[in-house]
Description:
By secondary structure, the protein is α+β, with helices and mostly antiparallel strands. It has helices at 7-27, 29-36, 41-70, 72-93, 110-141, 148-178, 190-210, 224-241, 263-278, 283-289, 295-300, 319-341, 348-376, 577-600, 607-631, 637-660, 667-698; strands at residues 180-181, 187-188, 385-392, 398-403, 407-411, 420-423, 429-433, 438-442, 450-455, 467-468, 481-486, 492-496, 499-504, 513-514, 523-528, 531-536, 545-554, 557-566. The protein has a four-stranded mixed beta sheet with strand order 6-3-9-10, with no helix packed on it. It has a four-stranded antiparallel beta sheet with strand order 5-4-7-8, with no helix packed on it. A four-stranded mixed beta sheet has the order 14-11-17-18, with no helix packed on it. β1 (180-181) and β2 (187-188) form a beta hairpin.
Amino acid sequence: CLGFPVSIFFIVINEFCERFSYYGMKAVLTLYFTRFLHWDDNFATAIYHTFVALCYLTPILGAILADSWLGKFRTILYLSIIYAIGQTVLSVGSINDLTDHNRDGSPDKVAVNIALSMIGLVLIALGTGGIKPCVSAFGGDQFEDDQEKQRSTFFSLFYLSINAGSLLSTLITPTLRATECGIHTKQECYPLAFGVPAILMAVALVVFVIGSKMYKKVKPQGNVMLEVSKCVGFAIKNRFRHRSKQFPKREHWLDWASEKYDKRLIAQTKMVLRVLFLYIPLPMFWAVFDQQGSRWTLQATAMNGNFGFHIQPDQMQIVNPILIVLMVPIVDSLVYPLIKKCKLNFTPLKRMTVGMFLGSMAFVAAALVQVQIDKTYPVFPAAGQSQIQLINLRSVPVTVQFQPQLQSVEIQPKETTGYMTFETSKLQSAHIITTTRNETVPLSLQNGERYTLPLKWTPPDIYSDLIQDNITSKPTSGKSVVRFINNLRYTVNLTMGDMNFGLLDPLSVTNYTDVPKPDRVYVISASVPLNYCGVLSKRFGYGGAYTISIDSCIKNELSITYFEDMAPNTVHMAWQIPQYFLLTCAEVLFSVTGLEFSYSQAPSNMKAVLQAGWLLTVAVGNIIVIIVAGVSTIKKQWAEYVLFAALLLVVCIIFAIMASFYTYIDPNEIEAQFSKEEKEEDKKDHDDNEKEAEADSRM
């Protein structure tokens, strides 16, 4: 079709669906851990990076299976089946109603959800990692030797499908997650967010199978990674056997493999090891880069995503693929030629060094944003402390003295003191003074908790029971939460939009409830038989907490007062764009250049070894994040960002020093030299054989 093998269209569609499946699932994974499984940020980060590390370790297994045993087609087929099963298991594990037998909105046996989720993720890692080195190579196998131009176009289409799948899924699946679903209770719809990628993976599998009769299937020809490993292992073992001084030294330690392996393989292995040595510092870059899906997503949950339309925290990751699509052609066609025109020697290793530096600066930018976010965080009680706020629902000022002789405050009508912090052991009571009477309220507080004491007008009492707020952090859902106080003399049936709070007695308080769409306006209504009052709410924003008092109902107009218990997120998500821009620039200079450099410095038949080494650096980078998240005692997130920035800067300097000693080679010249020598040896052997034959004939 159009000069291309028809089979490659099935491969391109398969890759698009698979990448949509992977990146779509991965985009919402961190919030799934924190909001559905209720893991803390550090543990969620550690598990996320464990999964990513596994995804970059399994390609080595996939390559060995394909090249040494199953072949590329069967490897892709079998591992895709495992992959699709994993996506399905993960989707099922995210169903809230699976074990919610008491219908309270929380799984009764969360261990079942966790077990299914972990099994699903392991299967996904095995599938996506295992097929990673096979699909593009399998596509390349479909072309004949004289179809070099078509093969090049295929790879362009192939990588376009990867970017398209990544971009679309990162946009769509967070939107699906943000919708609400459920049988008994409505919550964020993770089954849908994981289910759509599972369906796309099933489609990818079906498309791949449909094209099976059209594929050109190359038989396994042995894995070069195993050959290189055996060569290196034999050289080390042989050197150890001949460690005595009586054996003469050899020019290179790999030369100790010459007893078993030919000179060409040893020379090729030397070239590969020179490049792999430069890979040693590279994991630190990936430790920084892959935190887009974990720490940076968690950072976005504490930010304001209003762009005229609401951006979900996990959708901010889309900035990276968008910038990649824009920047790669700009850098290749404009920046690099301009640098060359200025006669600057911007070698590949120098580009990678600059990329690492920009990656470090990206985390400095993230730290600066985090400092601004931290300024907006409420101060919660520390160990041994409690907090209490007073809300004056009366129409006259009230003075409150905290006993024994700790503090005195005066509160104006319909105002709040905000949360005041006390040593729990010292605070015993609150003495309330008005123009008509005085009252002492005993206070029994628990360490680390927040409380609210409403001061009400209903005689004879001017106060109610102390309310324990049960909120000592920003809302885990990322939304705002509201509660209502009935400041009327009679019971009302209270609703806000589709949320029904039921009958609310005089002076009673509802629990905090998530606002489903905090950027929307709702109708708040209070009704009694033969009477109805309503009013439009404000837009609550994200990450806030509000107490709303129902004050009066006159001529069907409801009068309410808002008390802000916790300010909503105010730092805008747009402030994350500079750090994404810096990190994307770093990726263009580091990742794209790194692979290009690696392939230019090693023989063509050794590219698989370098790809395995490159993927291994990604895995090790994620392991670094796991270690830091697991053992770090750093309390402030901005300080952790600075730590990673400093570590990458140090590694950048080390890499620059290592790169300065590197001598660029042309593997093709070395290969040509070996070919020439082999031809000469063959000719010599041929001449010797002819001479022997001639001598034999004379005899």
